[in-house]
Amino acid sequence: MRKIVLFIFLFLLGLKFLMGSGSESEREGYLPSFPLVIDDLKLERLAQPFSPWDKAGRRFAFIGDESGRFEAWAYPLKLVRNFELSFILDSSTQPIRGRDIVREVIVTPAATIFKYTYQSFTLRAIFVAAMEAPGGLILLDLSSDEPLTIVASFLPVLQPMWPAGLGGQYAYWDQELKAYLISEPTRKNHAYIGSPVARGISYTPAHMLADKPSEFLIRIADPKEAREKFIPIAIVGGKGERKEIRQIYEELLASPERIYREALEHYEQLRSRTIQMETPLRKLNLALEWAKISLDNLFVNNPDLGKGMVAGLGPSGTSGRPGFGWFFGGDAFINSLALHSLGMTTEARSSLAFTQKWQRDDGKMAHELSQAAAYINWFQDYPYAYIHGDTTPYYLLAVWDYYERTGDIDFLKKSWPSLRRAFDWCLATDEDGDGLMDNRKAGLGALEYGELTGIQTDIYLAAVWIKALQAMKKMAELLGEKTLTQKSMALLSRALLSFEKFWDDSLDSYVYAFNAQGERVKELTPWPAVALMWSIGQSGRREKTLEKMFSSHLTTDWGLRVLSDQSRLYGPLNYNYGAVWPFITGFVVAAQFNHHFLPQALPLLLALAHHFFDNSLGHATEVLSGSRYLWPEEAVPHQGFSATGFVLPLIRGLLGLDFSFSENLIKFSPQFPADWAEVKIRNIEFAREKINLEYTRKEGLVRLKIDRAEKEIEPGRNTKSYETGAIMAGSKPLSFLYAPVFGAGVKVKEARVNSQPVEFEFVASPRASRIKIEVPLKEKMLIDLYLEETVEILPPFPLSQPGDEDRGLKILNLEKEGKEMRIVVEGRKGEIYHLKLCRPDLVALVNGAELVKDNLKIVFPASPDNNFLKREIIINLK
Fold first, then answer.
1. Which of 14, 518, 655, 856 could join 849 in a cystine, given CB atoms 3.0 to 4.6 angstroms apart?
2. How confident is the model over 457-480, as a mean pLDDT?
3. Segment 381-421, tens digit of pLDDT
4. What is the pTM of this model?
5. For the chain, domain boundaries
6. Which of 563, 552, 586, 562 is closest to 808 using CA atoms?
7. How confident is the model at residue 5 (pLDDT cuts 50, 70, 90)?
8. Is the peptide bond before 213 cis (omega within 30 degrees of 0)?
9. Rounded distance between C-alpha atoms, residue 24 and residue 425, angstroms
10. 536-571 core/surface letters (b: 16 or more CB in 10 A; e: else)
């Protein structure tokens, strides 16, 4: 025992000697600190050790969890994993693990900050990913009452993404550079990790990587000298000459403030050139800004493959892919719809052009492409590239959506041969001649495995194909392809007729799929919403199908299950058969807005917004449990299509903003709750112009103020007539379609444009009242609507906390006929709910609930089974 104590003493004594007192050259490695910009986008919370985070540029990413551990990627290489900090005080021999004292995490667009606190010191670790270089910085900001040593440890990896691989990696400490070099025998792939104030203490074999972590020490002999300084750590890697990678490493350490400022300016410009909004719901506004950042973070500049958009990011652990950090064609096309909506059209064009490089000779678009494809024979040796059938028709509709947003005829013409090949491939997948693509021939659609994949056509693939046919018809017409225009029209008519094969009279709903014998798959799923958000299907049938989705069997407080919890196939954590997908929920919400189901749509939209703040801060996770508000461990925490699932129904649904360059039209069809007094929308760019909108509602007056934003216009690209004040798209005036949606029973008595009475179209239904006014868009306009108000139900917001089960009130139906309003709700037994009303003074009598001031109090009796019950509420109006 005495020998063991003596050994430990001598070891620690040697470690103290190795630490030394801190040389002058090491102190010179400190960098002057600079201020960080902490603006209104800041997200912060107490650190949650198992919650993921990432900070990504175009060629590099930190990916880890809030314990402070991370892995580092310089695409397509995984450089290191399990990097973490620990601390040894001069007054102690016990190491203090960083994961045990990390207290707070602060996330800003340009930097993520971890705050470590102990009784004698506080340290901020500031993570910055270079925007364009394959590296990142960790800037340590220390305040300590006593000398200490910071120990950085990590496992070297230097492996390309799966399924590629390298062998013979080695690592050693370069004393001159004060960094570890990680390399391999071909000397084509390298990484550097170190600090100008560090000392390496790991000695690895020359021919292999050690099993134990590599470590380096940063000795702080005089904490006063470290005050108002940054202690830098740099990580850089990539393919190429070793001296080039070393030069990048040295450049990052020489200019950390420039690296930070470049990231800061990048996100400031992203914010300033894209749509911004102010609604009464701050979390909704904040989620929009973080959705932009989350999508932007997925753009990658791969040294071998080029610039494209990956599907998602997440920790890889001991495996070889960081979440969905590959190029997925279908995800790129789905996400392009959100990019167009936001005004991120430059990024969208880059993403679309990238996918064209991997189109198969027969026209099929690639579903997935490993970032390490240049290391292997990806297309020849692996079966994954073209497994999905929906990717190719999605490509067609995505390109048309891009044109409608931008008017970029040059890109459309350049893409036309590719689009024609894609169209021809889609046609070849219709084996039964019904006008719909067949999953059996095309490939996977909505689901990727399990019992429900053995079908002829699923409704998701059918909807995407019909939308693609509509797009192809318009593109062919625009480019003067008369024969193709007629062919597309004929195919579209046949496809729309065949779409009705999904209708099931016994269920009074469109269903998921039908098989080769025409038998329908009668599972209750949200997949029909893809068709409904594009108004595919018969009116009346669409609404009935949507109403089936409102119940607690599909809808939870955090999104929609992909399969009813009543199905024998249901499993709450099953990816395809029960989990909640934010992106499918987004399709449902978009369909709800499209059919004016505001009380059902807005709560789900707000739930989607909150996903950006509950798991990986600033990002939306791939899937969640179907039984409680939690995310499976296997779920990718930063998923692009989950951000799209929020953006698409927000911009095109709640705000009702849509654009048609082919018609020179901006459409604004907002669906705001009756108590929203003010909404501002800025930076709406279209036809090389920008406009701002300000919507107000007070005491029966709804006013829309339109202003042309100050913006320098490129000569010859766009003009406006100062004589008329009209805004032009080239030689054509832009039109503005104003079509707000109000609650059922609201009437519009008068409409005025710039104080002049105008005619308008008014449509009333049991669910909503709608008005339409189309006018030439001018640089300054006021549109006033004078309303005759009535009782309106405000949407409930049953927001969940992580771990909560589904408990929120579900509105199944809300209709008004004459003086009677009928509400059908579903609530959990033993719960008390409140529905807020506007204009409760107009209520004469309530049955099924109690009117308490401006709230309907709804009580569900307790019961042992705790299930959901239906309740009908009748409101008679004065």
1. 856
2. 98
3. 999 999 999 999 999 999 999 999 999 999 999 999 999 99
4. 0.95
5. 2-268, 660-789, 793-877
6. 552
7. very low
8. no
9. 68
10. bbeeebbbebbbbbbbbbbbbbbbbbbbbbebeebb
